[in-house]
Amino acid sequence: MAEPAAAGPPAPDEPPNPARERWDRGWRGEVARLLEMVALVGLVVTQPLLDVLGRSPDFFLFHRADTAQILLLVALVAVVPTTGVALLGALSRLAGRTARALTHTGLVGLLLAALAVQVGRHVTPLRGVPLLCVAGLAGAAGAAAHRRWRAPSRVLRLAAAGPVAFVALFLLASPTSAVVLPRTDGGAAGTAQGTGVHPPVVMLILDELPLVSLLGTDGRIDAAKYPHFAELAGGSTWYRNATGVSGWTPNALPAMLTGRYPARPVAPHYSQYPDNIFTAFGGLYDIRAEESITRLCPPSRCEQPVTPEQGLDVLVRKTGTLLRQITGPTATQVDPEDSYREQTRAEAGLDAAEPVPADPTFRWDSLDDNQPARFTTFLAGLKPTTRPTLHFLHLLMPHSPWAYLPSGARYDAPEDLPNDGAGWIDLARQRHLAQLGYTDRLVGETLRTLRASGLYDQALVVVTADHGVSFHPGAQGRGMDAIKAAAGEVAWVPTFVKEPRQQTGRVDDRNWEHVDLLPTVADEANIRLPWQVDGRSARQAPRTDATKHFYDRPGEPVTFPGGVPTPPPPPTPHPLIGTEVRAGPADGSARVADLAAFKAMDPDTGTLPALIWGDVPDRIPDGTLLAVAVNGRIGAVVPVVPADPGGRRFAALLADDKLFHAGTNKLDVFQVGTDGTLRRLALS
């Protein structure tokens, strides 16, 4: 056997290269720092934003975002904040290693403090400055621990995988995933039931409208304030004991249009609700649907919305607002739906569909431009056709944000006005009722258009709302706190069904729940639904059980007894409202926003400075009444409320647009003494 070749002499050790070792250490250190920033920014920004947006598919549906826009927004959320923070740290290296290390430690401390703010809002009662102080201490302690020990750094580097997981959950497992990647195109169509005709169907679904807001002290619709709702009730069946099944539209509206109680937290999308009114009617009816924060009508049944898409820039801007809500130290209820506002016809660039009504209170030539764009398109389609047609509109009225007077004039308001607390609840209710007055005008326009086109007599007309809203102190909104404190404001909604050729109105106090809407409409349209529903058609015998079902969370019903709610007593107007007053010498001062709007008011804009807000000096005690006058007539009397993060503020709604005129208007604010005397405040 041959001898193995002798091994050569061992290679000499390479001489140490200090420069390369320093470069390697520096490179590894930069990678480690980058991973730590990825982890922290992911926890502070990416996770909370994608969590809220993932549970809010309606955000993307309302803004009509397509798949590409959603993916771009996710990429921006996941990459841009991290890139900005990482670049800031990298640039600090130009000042030397010590500056780089201190900058990184400072960024770690700031991000940990921002994370502590979010955690503190959920697990402690602290808010505002106290929460910021505690979070600052937590951030400083975390930064010190990170600088002294290696374990925090190692944990953060492992957590750098978090943003990838957050994005994956958003795209694959969240309710919004169905909007990004739809997996079906609707369910089976319904079939004709019997030999009856299929009448035109007109459905107007309003939003956030409590029944009690329409009622007078006698329990009837207040015809003086809401003449068109009263007109509707006079020619239809009014189901007074009708309730929505959820306070959240993405659950409530699908229940109405599928006939099934909410079972799962899924997107209000045709891929998740393939069996709905649009698929059932689509085989026998033409569908003209204008949805707002749902997309239940599949592309095979409905054309794309005609109003323009709102684009990535709107998504980015609204997401930035959402981030400020999530990361701020004050108590805010993060609900993207609270910011949805219908585009006006003028904003959408639509041509006039209807003339301005001949109404003496409709005083501004361009008010018709303030008509919601979706409503304009809906009205334009209300015409007889040779084939049965389903005309459907879900309109976000009188839903907040409140921006309309009863006349249709618009006004501006700051986004940070509270809706709860002394004085603010009354203002919120006033703004809601003012917008309801304009909604009544839209209902009147619908009835007038139906009559003018010849559709009214032959059509099945449905007008209702998906849910109400509570203005109960300490229980504002539409969730479980509100249901427990004021179910009559949240669950009960106006529901009117005018059958074809119905001439006279009647009242039906059966236990109606909104899962009854689809089976009732299907029966009236002579369509057999191809799936089982939880609801009961109004053609069937009423329920014997008076129990109501409400779903704050899908699949988790809460029950409470039924019965038509009693309207709350109307507020007593202050005796000074409507009186004329002379402006004497100033005695005190106040600051008011947007005083310039009173100097040159142009009626053609359709906008009025009808919401007055400002602040007063500390010498004016909380609870002091302020009288607000325009052109020498008092339009509102409001209290100075306790200080909040916005200061010691007051705000007043001047709902009567007859207080204003074209050109220069004079605004005065008076301090009302305990004896009724008025002291004018100098405004700045």
UniProtKB/TrEMBL annotation:
Protein name stated in the entry: Sulfatase N-terminal domain-containing protein
Keywords: Membrane, Transmembrane, Transmembrane helix
The keyword GTP-binding is annotated on this UniProt entry: no
All residue ranges annotated as the Sulfatase N-terminal domain in the record: 225-526
Domain of life: Bacteria
InterPro entries with a match to the protein in the record: Alkaline_phosphatase_core_sf, GAG_Ulvan_Degrading_Sulfatases, Sulfatase_N
Residues spanning the membrane: 70-89, 101-120, 126-143, 155-173
Region span, Disordered: 1-21
Pro residues biased stretches: 7-18
Keyword Transmembrane helix: yes
